Amino acid sequence: MSEILIRNAETVVTMDAARAEIARGDVLIRGGIVAAVGQGLTTTGAVIEARGCVVTPGLVNTHHHLYQTLTRAVPGGQDALLFGWLKTLYPIWARFGPDEMRVSALTGLAELALSGCTLTSDHLYLYPNGARLEDTIDAAREIGLRFHPTRGAMSIGESAGGLPPDSLVEDEAAILKDMARVVDAFHDPAEGAMVRVGLAPCSPFSVSRDLMREAALLARDKGVMLHTHLAENDEDIAYSLSQFGCRPGQYAEDLGWTGDDVWHAHCVKLDAGEIGLFARTRTGVAHCPCSNCRLGSGIAPVRAMRDAGVKVGLGVDGSASNDAGNLAAEARQAMLLQRVANGADAMSAREALEIATRGGAEVLGRTDCGRLEPGKRADIAIWDMSGIEAAGAWDPVGALMLCGPNRVRDLFVEGRQVVRDGQLATIDLPHVIETQNRLARRLMA
């Protein structure tokens, strides 16, 4: 069985139960699994020198819309709130097809990998012109990232009082049928799985109560997780109160959308009662700080969530609302926003890194990922701290969040190298970028 030894790191950040950090540390990989972590380890296999580097678990992205990577910085949507932004982008997304879905996913996944991400979810809730969930699954396999795609959906179009145009909504019976299809075809429940599938009706304002309820029943029958957007901004709360007569947290609870197998994106406007509900039920949250800033949604109460015991991970959200997909930068932004809201001691650099690694893995139900200890999956990021970003830094782990870099030197997923010396090792990235830009120009025209 092949071995790789990552040797002589300045610091290995384990994220184990004790949150141990090992100076001049080594990590031994065997067969895609962490075999040992310590000092002075040896191997008869390959050796990766990590002198001057910080080694961490791979970062985990708990919310994304990979298809949106093809619509960054779109005029008309750059300065809009959530609902206005959606109305600007929906007609463009309606012109997508399988090629746009796959190439945009390749681009977004490559950006994530270069920022240290080894495991990402994706929320794909529209399927125009023959697009299917497997367009993104194929892209993730090509890149080599661990992937948790979710079969999203919209069923209430403009003619029925919803936000999306009618051309982008689907019949609910057909949605449930395809949800069952993709779970049966692609979901792997085993430890170390490279692909797991979740079910994810888009939001309370784009699907019916019946679909939310039926999706929850189907997910539990199939043993997969549930995901949706919730309590993203003031408009979202107002819609819930006017249409459902309750706040989003109660809406979710009434329909079976709380529990250890559920995670909600954003949750910017959760109140104390809803935070308590999520803590009691072990419901997870995907915190998307840059997107929440970009759309003016607000600052999610992450400090209160964490103090209450809510599971919190990070999400870059779609690159049409971020407009980047750099998970390391997202972790820094999360830390800074909690300090803006609650004071300079509200979140440390190490807590931000924990949320970006172990925290995200827990939200996605992946206790086999997000930490460097024997028996866990060998999803590992190596950060070179010898560059200009961290020059003069006294604490290399703190510097990773406070200074940078926000691009990895090397990245391993399941023990396979995805990034080598700062470059993608699995795809021809310049060719993907060229194709992405050609498709964007076609959409503009």
Structure in words:
- With 445 residues, this protein is an alpha/beta fold.
- It has two domains: 3-57 and 371-424, Urease, subunit C, domain 1 (Roll), CATH 2.30.40; 59-363, TIM Barrel, CATH 3.20.20.140.
- 37% of the residues lie in helices and 21% in strands.
- Strands 1, 2, 3, 4, 5, 14, 15, 16 and 17 form a nine-stranded mixed β-sheet that branches.
- The protein is globular, with a radius of gyration of 21 Å.
Quick structural gist:
37% of the residues lie in helices and 21% in strands.
Compile the SSE list and pairings:
Elements: E1 3-13, E2 21-30, E3 33-38, E4 46-49, E5 53-57, E6 59-61, H1 82-93, H2 98-114, E7 117-124, H3 134-143, E8 146-153, H4 172-186, E9 198-201, H5 209-222, E10 226-230, H6 234-244, H7 248-254, E11 262-266, H8 272-281, E12 284-287, H9 289-294, H10 302-308, E13 311-314, H11 327-342, H12 349-363, E14 380-384, H13 396-402, E15 410-413, E16 416-420, E17 423-424, H14 429-444
Parallel strand pairs: 1-4, 1-5, 6-7, 7-8, 8-9, 10-11, 11-12, 12-13
Antiparallel strand pairs: 1-2, 2-3, 5-14, 14-15, 15-16, 16-17
